[in-house]
Design brief:
The protein is α/β, with parallel strands linked by helices. It contains 28 helices and 18 strands. It folds into 5 domains: 12-105 and 209-293, Rossmann fold (3-Layer(aba) Sandwich); 127-202, Arc Repressor Mutant, subunit A (Orthogonal Bundle); 330-390 and 485-581, Rossmann fold (3-Layer(aba) Sandwich); 395-476, no CATH class; 595-699, DNA polymerase, domain 1, CATH 1.10.150. The strands form 4 sheets. Strands 11, 12, 13, 14, 15, 16, 17 and 18 form an 8-stranded mixed beta sheet that branches. The chain has a 6-stranded parallel beta sheet with strand order 3-2-6-7-1-8. It has a two-stranded parallel sheet with strand order 4-5.
C-alpha cells in the first residue's frame, strides 16, 4: 500500500518518491531506498546524516514500505527530535513520531501505569540535588553530589543494581578518582531508599520502569509492538545497554530497525554509552544492510586529512572525503611557552581574524576540562572580544531567560502589533541589559544569556513572532546562537560546527586526559579528539603550552609527526606532514621569534607574522594595488563558490601588496602562500603586482 495520509508542508503530499531523493549523493540515495530489514548507516561528520535519515523515512512512507503512524524515530535530545519532526513534516511524513528515548518511554509508562501497577504514576523529581545531599548525609559517605549523581546515572544506563556496582567497576575498568566503590554503593542504596520513602522517581528511573512493565506484561508488550513496527535510531553510537534493552522489547524478533551513527564519535562512555553496540550491529541483526556515508559537506580537505589520520586508529571509522572546494581550509599546530602565553596567543589570533572581518560567532575554542576556561576567557575579555561559555545547563531554564520571555509576553499583551525591536528594547531597559558586557563572572553569564536572545531580534519583525520562536526553541531545547566566540568542552561540541575552531591544551596528560588509564578509556579520548577536529568548516588551530605547573610537557601523542620533538616556539606546523620534512637546521631548536622588518621588534599576532611588520609600523602598500587585489579575491571567490578568506586571508593579501613579489619564488616566501595557492593563483597575482613598484624592505 502506498500511504497517502501523511501531513506535510505545501506540495509535500504531491511529492513522488524520486523527488524525495533529489539532491542525494550516491551513498545517501542507497541508504534512503534500503528498506525491508535491519539497516546500519555509518555517517561521518558533516555527511548529511539527518537529511538522509528523514528522506529515507519519507521515501518509505511514500512507497508504502513504512506506515507512518506505526513508525518511530528515536534520538537523544529534544532539539534533535524537534528537527526530525520539522523535516519529516516538510517531506509529507508528519505522522511519524519523533521522540527522545526518555519521552517515548515516559509516554508509555504513564499510559500503562494504572493497568500494570495501579494508581497514579510516581512523581518525577526534576532537581535531585536535595535527595543526593540527604543520601550522602544518611550514608555517612564522603562523596560529592556530582560524583554520586554521575555514578547513579551510569549504573542505571548499564542496567545494574547498586549492590553490583563495586564488581562492575572492576570488570569494566572504570576509573574512580578520590572515591571508593564500596562507599559509593552505600550512598547509592541510601539514595534509592530516600526516593522510596518519599514516593518519587528520578529521570533515570523512567527507562527502568518502562522496561519492567514491558518485561513483566506480555499483553502490554504485544500492544506496543502492534502500535510501533518501524524504528529509526539516530546517534546509535550513544545508545546505552539499558536503551538497547528497551529497543529490543519494542522490536521483538522483527528486524525493522535503521540505526544511524558513527563509531568514531562515540564519546559518552562515562555516561553509560556502549560503543560496542554499533560495532556489533551486524552480529545483533544478522543480514543487516551496511551503508557508509563518507562524503563530508562540512570540513575542508586539509581538515579531512587530519581527521583521517586520527580515524586510522579508531575501530570501524569511516574514511572521509571532502566535498568542499579543494583550495580551502587550513590546519595549524601552535606551541607556546606556557598556558598563559597560549591563552594570549589564541586571543591574538582571534583578534586578528575579527579585525579581518571574520564573524566571532563562527568561532569556537574547545577544551578537555572546564578548568581551562578561566585563562582563555580573561585573555578574550582583555582584548574586548565577545564570548560565551556554553555549559551543560539548559538555556531556557536560566532565570534571566525565563524572566526575559515573561516580560516579552507582557509587552505583546499590551500591544499585539509591537515590533520585535520595540518589544525587546522595553525588556532590555527593564532588565538593565546593555551592549557592553559587564565585569564579574555571574553578571557576565547573565549578560551572555540576554545577548543570545537579543541576537534573534533582527531576524524577526513582530514581537509576537519573537515569543513564538522562543517558545518553539524552548520546547525543542534549541537555544539561540551565542553572541560571540563559543567556549565549550570537546564533549559539549559534538553535533555543532563553526568556520574556525581552536583546540587548546593539546599536551600529553590533557589529550589524552591523565585519568584515561585503560585501553578503552584511551580509545575514547582519541575519538573525543576526532570529534573536535571535525567541528570546523574551514580553519583548525591546535595549541598547547610547553611549560606547566609540574614542569615541561610533551605534545599530545595524537599529534605525533605533526611537529618536531621540541617544536619551535611561536611557529606553526603542518599536521598533515611528518616532522622530518622540516629542515635539519630548524628541527628541535628554540629559535628566536620573528621580528619586524621595519623596527626589528618581536612580532606577536598572527597578522604581524604574516605582514612581517608590527601593527604600529606604517604600511608601504600602494592603495590602488590593495584595491585591485581585493577585487580579484572577491571575483575569484564568487567564481569558485567559496568564502573570500578561503581564497586568501586579508593579512596575506596585504602582505602581497606591501612586498610586491616579482616572481613565484618571492611569492612563495610570503606566509599563507601555500603550494596549492601558488599553483592556482600565482599567475593572476603576478600580473596584478607587475605594474607596482616593489616596496622597501626596511632592512
Amino acid at each position: 500500500m502506498v500511504w497517502r495520509g501523511a501531513t506535510g508542508g505545501m506540495g509535500a503530499d504531491m511529492m513522488d518518491p524520486e523527488q524525495i531523493l533529489d539532491g542525494l549523493n550516491e551513498e545517501q540515495r542507497a541508504a534512503a531506498v534500503a528498506h525491508g530489514g535491519p539497516v546500519l548507516i555509518t555517517a561521518g561528520p558533516g555527511s548529511g546524516k539527518t537529511r538522509t535519515v528523514t528522506r529515507r523515512i519519507a521515501y518509505g512512507v511514500r512507497t508504502g514500505a513504512i506506515e507512518p503512524h506505526r513508525a518511530m524515530a528515536l534520538t537523544f535530545t529534544s532539539r534533535a527530535a524537534g528537527e526530525l519532526r520539522q523535516r519529516l513534516t516538510a517531506l509529507g511524513a508528519g505522522e511519524v513520531s519523533a521522540r527522545t528515548f526518555h519521552s517515548a518511554a515516559l509516554r508509555q509508562m504513564r499510559h500503562f501505569w494504572s493497568e500494570a501497577v495501579g494508581g497514579e504514576p510516581a512523581r518525577i523529581v526534576g532537581d535531585r540535588s536535595k535527595i543526593l545531599t540527604q543520601a550522602i548525609q544518611e550514608s555517612g559517605v564522603n562523596v560529592t553530589r556530582e560524583l554520586l549523581g554521575q555514578e547513579l546515572d551510569w549504573i542505571k544506563a548499564q542496567g545494574i543494581d547498586s549492590s553490583d556496582y563495586p564488581a562492575t567497576i572492576v570488570a569494566t575498568q572504570r576509573k574512580l578518582i578520590d572515591a571508593d566503590a564500596e562507599q559509593l554503593a552505600s550512598a547509592m542504596a541510601a539514595y534509592e531508599q530516600v526516593k522510596a520513602t518519599q514516593g518519587i522517581i528520578d529521570f533515570a528511573d523512567v527507562l527502568l520502569l518502562t522496561i519492567g512493565i514491558l518485561d513483566s506484561r506480555s499483553d502490554i508488550r504485544e500492544s506496543v509492538r502492534r502500535q510501533y513496527r518501524w524504528f529509526t535510531v539516530d546517534e546509535y553510537q550513544d545508545v546505552s545497554p539499558l536503551q538497547q534493552r528497551l529497543l529490543d522489547l519494542w522490536l521483538g524478533d522483527r528486524g525493522q530497525i535503521c540505526a544511524v551513527g558513527d563509531p568514531a564519535q562515540s564519546i559518552y562512555a562515562f555516561a553509560g554509552a556502549d560503543a560496542g553496540l554499533i560495532t556489533s550491529f551486524p552480529q545483533r541483526y544478522p543480514g543487516a544492510t551496511i551503508i557508509s556515508l563518507p562524503v563530508t559537506y562540512r570540513c575542508a580537505p586539509r581538515i579531512v586529512e587530519v581527521a583521517n589520520r586520527l580515524a586510522s586508529g579508531i575501530t570501524q571509522a569511516t574514511e572521509l572525503r571532502s566535498n568542499v572546494a579543494s583550495s580551502s581550509g587550513s590546519v595549524q599546530v601552535l606551541q607556546y611557552p606556557s598556558d598563559g602565553a597560549e591563552a594570549s596567543g589564541v586571543a591574538d589570533e582571534i583578534s586578528t581574524l575579527v579585525a579581518n572581518g571574520d564573524d566571532p560567532r563562527e568561532m569556537a575554542i574547545l577544551f578537555r576540562t572546564n578548568q581551562q576556561v578561566r585563562g582563555i576567557s580573561e585573555s578574550l575579555r582583555s582584548r574586548g572580544i565577545s564570548y560565551a561559555v556554553r555549559g551543560s545547563d539548559r538555556f531556557f531554564d536560566r532565570a534571566e531567560v525565563r524572566e526575559a520571555i515573561t516580560r516579552l509576553r507582557g509587552e505583546i499583551r499590551a500591544d499585539p502589533h509591537l515590533s520585535s525591536v520595540d518589544a525587546w528594547r522595553a525588556v532590555a531597559d527593564a532588565m538593565g541589559f546593555e551592549l557592553v558586557p559587564p565585569e564579574g563572572e555571574k553578571a557576565r553569564l547573565r549578560w551572555e544569556s540576554l545577548a543570545a536572545v537579543a541576537g534573534l531580534v533582527p531576524e524577526i519583525n513582530l514581537g509576537r513572532d519573537l515569543t513564538s520562536d522562543l517558545d518553539r526553541r524552548a520546547n525543542d531545547q534549541d537555544p539561540p546562537r551565542p553572541a560571540g566566540v563559543s567556549l565549550l568542552t570537546l564533549h559539549a561540541a559534538k553535533g555543532l560546527e563553526w568556520d574556525t575552531v581552536f583546540i587548546i591544551g593539546a599536551w600529553d596528560g590533557m589529550l589524552p586526559f591523565v585519568g584515561a588509564a585503560t585501553d578503552l578509556a584511551r580509545a575514547e579520548e582519541l575519538r573525543l579528539v576526532y570529534v573536535g577536529v571535525t567541528r570546523p568548516r574551514q580553519r583548525l588551530m591546535i595549541t598547547w603550552g610547553l611549560q606547566g605547573d609540574n614542569g615541561r610537557r610533551r605534545v599530545s601523542p595524537y599529534l605525533d609527526g605533526a611537529a618536531p620533538e621540541r617544536p619551535i616556539v611561536g611557529e606553526q606546523f603542518d599536521l598533515t606532514e611528518p616532522a622530518a620534512a622540516l629542515p635539519d637546521s630548524r628541527a628541535g631548536q628554540q629559535l628566536p621569534p620573528a621580528r619586524c622588518r621595519v623596527c626589528r621588534a618581536a612580532l606577536v599576532t598572527g597578522t604581524e607574522r604574516v605582514l612581517g611588520r608590527c601593527s604600529g609600523c606604517p604600511s608601504t602598500a600602494d592603495e590602488q594595488l590593495v584595491a585591485r587585489l581585493n577585487k580579484w579575491r572577491s571575483l575569484t571567490a564568487a567564481a569558485e563558490g567559496i568564502p573570500s578568506f578561503a581564497v586568501m586571508t586579508s593579512a596575506t593579501l596585504q602582505a602581497i601588496a606591501e612586498l610586491v613579489p616579482i616572481d613565484v619564488l618571492s611569492l612563495q616566501r610570503i606566509p599563507g602562500m601555500t603550494t596549492d595557492r601558488i599553483e592556482r593563483y600565482s599567475q593572476d597575482l603576478l600580473v596584478l603586482t607587475s605594474n607596482a613598484a616593489p616596496a622597501s624592505s626596511g632592512d
